[in-house]
Amino acid sequence: MRTAYHGQLDHLAAQLGEMCGLAGIAMKRATQALLEADNAAAQQVIGDHDRLAAMRAQAEREAFALLALQQPVAGELREVFAAIQIIADVERMGALAVHVAKIAEREHPKRVLPEEVRQCFADMGKVAIALGDSAKQVLVSRDPQGAARLHEQDDAMDDLYRGLFGLLIDDDWRHDISVGVETALLGRFYERFADHAVEVGRRVVFAVTGELPAEDEISTY
Amino acid sequence: MRTAYHGQLDHLAAQLGEMCGLAGIAMKRATQALLEADNAAAQQVIGDHDRLAAMRAQAEREAFALLALQQPVAGELREVFAAIQIIADVERMGALAVHVAKIAEREHPKRVLPEEVRQCFADMGKVAIALGDSAKQVLVSRDPQGAARLHEQDDAMDDLYRGLFGLLIDDDWRHDISVGVETALLGRFYERFADHAVEVGRRVVFAVTGELPAEDEISTY
After folding, report:
1. In this protein, which residues make up the domain named PhoU (chains A, B) (predicted)?
2. What percentage of chain B has pLDDT greater than the value 70?
3. Rounded mean pLDDT of B18-35?
4. Per residue in B185-198, pLDDT tens?
5. What is the pLDDT of residue B211?
6. By CA distance, what is A50's nearest residue in B?
7. CATH class for the domain made up of B2-209
8. B165 touches chain A (CB under 8 A)
9. Touching check for A103 and chain B: CB below 8 Å?
10. Among the four residues A16, B40, B77, B219, which has the most C-beta atoms within 10 Å?
11. What is the DSSP string of B109-173?
12. Residues 6+ apart with CB under 8 A from A55
C-alpha cells in the first residue's frame, strides 16, 4: 500500500514537471511565432493548450484523490498542498504563451513587433524558456537551491521588461499607438510568465523545507 | 471534536469572504486614487496589502492544519481543496489593486488618465467592486447560482475592456505613447481582477457540487 501511495506522489510530481516543460515549449514556439510571423507555430501553441488544460484537470483529480484516500501528513502533505498551487501557476504560464501566440496569429502575415524591440523580445523569450526549464528542474530535483536560480532569471526578465518601457517612451519611437500598446502587453505576458515560474520555485521550497520564502514586493506594473 | 472541526471549516470560509471584501475595497480605493489623483487613497491601498498578504498566509496555514489534523473527505475535502485555490486568486485581486494604486501614486499629483477614458475606468471600477461583492457573497452563501452572476459581470468587464482599446486606437487619440501604454496596462489590471473573481466562483461551484464549470476560452489579450 505504501508503495502504491508513493507511486501516486511520484506520478503527480512527474506530471507537474511535464506540464512545466510543455509551458516552456509553448512560450518558445509563441516567441518564434511572434518574431518570425510563423503562423504554424502560433496555431500549434493555441491547439496544444488543450493538452495542458487536460493535464491540469487530471493533476487536480490526482491531488484530490491522494488527499481523500491516502490522507498524507507532514512532508507528503506539503507535497500535495504545494502541487495544488503549482498546477494553477503552470497552467497560467501556458495560457500566457497562448496570449502571445494569439496576437501573432491575429496580425499574421504582418510582424507585430517593430525592429527596435525585436532583440528585447528575443531575449525575453530566451529567459522565459530558461525559466520554464529551471522550474521543471526544481520540480524534478526538489532542490531548494534551484529556486534561487529562478529568482536570478526573474531579475533578468524584470531588467528586460524595464528596458522595453525605456524603448517605448523614447523620443525616437515612431509607431502607432496600437503597436505601442500591443508591444507593452506582450512584454507584460513574458514578465508574468516569469513571475509564475518563480512562484513554482517558492512552493517547491515550502514542500521540501516547510518554510515559504518571502514574496517579492509588488512592482509598479 | 466534530464541532471544533466544523468551526475551523467555517472560520476558513469566513476568512476567504473577508479577504475578498478587502480586495474589493482595495480596488474601490485604487479607482478613487486613479480617477481623482487621490494620493492618500493610493497609499492606503499599498499599505493595506500587507494585511491581505498576512491573511493569505494565515488562511493557508489553517487549510493545511485542517488537512493534516482533520483529514476531511468528500464535500468537506472539496471545501478545503477549493479554499487553497481561492486564497491565491483573492490575494492576486488585491495585488492588482496595488498595481493600480502604485501607478496613481507615481504620477501624483498628475492625473494618469486622459479625459476620454475616465468614464470607461469609472465603469470598470464599478464592475470590479460589484465582482468583489459577488465573489464574497458566493463564498458566504455557497450558492452556485451566484457564480452565474459573476460571469455576467465579467462579460460587462470584457465589453468595457474592448471598448477601452477602441478608444486607444481611435484616430482622435492625441496623447503620448506613455499615456496609451499606461492606460492599456491599467485596463488589463481591471480585466484580470474580474477573471480572478470568476475563478473564485468556479471553485465554489466545485466545492458545493463536485463539478468544476468549464473555463472561458482564452481571449486575444
Report:
1. 17-103, 122-204
2. 97
3. 97
4. 999 999 999 999 99
5. 92
6. B217
7. mainly alpha
8. yes
9. yes
10. A16
11. TS--S-HHHHHHHHHHHHHHHHHHHHHHHHHHH--HHHHHHHHHHHHHHHHHHHHHHHHHTSTT-
12. A15, A18, A19, A22
Flag if B185 and A185 touch (Cβ within 8 Å): yes
- Judge: A180–B176 Cβ closer than 8 Å, yes or no: no
Separation of alpha carbons B60 and A206, rounded Å: 12
B64 to chain A: nearest residue by CA? A81
Answer with the residue of higher pLDDT: A3 or B153. B153
Q: Within chain B, how many helices (H) and strands (E) appear?
A: 6, 0
| Gap between the Cα atoms of B178 and B112, Å rounded | 10
ipTM: 0.95
Asked if residue B103 has pLDDT above 70, the reply is yes
Partner-chain contact A169 B181, CB within 8 Å: yes
| Residue B173 touches chain A, beta carbons under 8 Å | yes
Is B221's pLDDT higher than 70? Answer: no
Closest-approach residue (CA) in chain B for A105: B220
Rg value, chain A, Cα: 19
Q: What residues does each domain of chain B span? A: 2-209
